[in-house]
Amino acid sequence: RSVTSSVSSSRVQDVRIQYSTPYFSQILLLVKMRWLLRLHCACCELDYRVCSLKNIILGMQHVVLQQYGDAECDNIFDTKVSQHIGSFLNLDSMFDDIVDQLHRSLGTSWRPFLDFVASCDPTKAVHASLIDSMKTPTVVPTDGLAVVIDTIFLANFLRQSMNCRASRLRDFHEDCRQFGIAALDFPPLHGARDLLAWATARTKPTLANRSMVGKKETEKLAQLDAVLLTAALELASPEIIASALEVAESKGLSDEMSMLTSSLTDGHRGKRPSSPDSPGSTAGGPVGGRAIPRDRPVPAVAILEAAMGCIHHHDTFPIGIRERLYRILTEEFFLTRAQLQSLATASTQNIDGKRLSHSVLLHMVDTEKSRLRQYRCDNFVDTSHCTAPPLVQSLSEHGKSPKYLKHPSLDVTVGCRRPRPNSSPASTGQRRRP
What we know:
By secondary structure, this protein is mainly α. The protein contains 14 helices and 4 strands.
């Protein structure tokens, strides 16, 4: 609360902050999210089968890691995502909604309930329930949910643009230390194995990993690895730094490309390649080229492949994560020219959506139908069932005969009887009885 505000309740105390930080709103959100874990422990002590917040916390993680929500679609060529539902989660609004609903439901018991929540230990929860009244309540640690909550906040923090004032994870950790708040605790990266396996199964499927693509759990693990990879790159974790052999190979290839570029440039101008020690030498690249400092760390090959796999899939990973990954890799790490070009291609090409244009797809359909008709004429085999449209009708065709029962050239319905016209006995040649 502000220092100049009038306080009417003795429970509310004014706080004066002597350390100015642009990350105050983010720190306040982290404190709220960690208080949600204490609220979960209090609710589990009342009745963990009814009042547990575990499903709500896991649902928040499910939404904050993805770019779009799933949508039902029976067309294999269309994208099965919804660009409106499940694409954004406001943690502040959701926390305020939970607290407001509890406040309205408890009424005058709200203050005693807050005192009860404050007395609970957030590191463990007592699972008690009226359904299990004959059993002894068990004490369950909440370390897993604590990591999930910090991961939710981390994903929400990294999804914001790096052009914002308060968007650096390293500075945020320093400000948390100044306020006496524990740093974020998130799972280890483990070389982004889940992200690499999922991206390989999507781009280069084999019989062994083909079943991995359709599993939602595998996709969520890949999205979690993308968040952890972004955090590790921004914090320059030793796990993502390349080995000495990889560094030598990367910089040796870069030196060869620079010398080749310089030789081609000098040869085009009619000059001999100058040595690096000669005055006016341009051995590091062409005149006016961008100078790349060599003191930057070199990322590991597996880490770079995982990052490219994340940036390539625009409908699976959040746009804030992908933009932050691209900017960190291009500005803070040493990359070769080929790697920079691959990153630029990945940032502009989406391999989650349609890979072919609509005209190309129509041309493929027409070519296949022509091939089937030619095969029918050459081999005397009926292929009409392959060229028939799907059984799902449009709204304008409801109540009508299916089109695959109609001959394409004759307007005659196959297999359906037409109603006979009303005819008089004289027209049918019937004789009258005497």
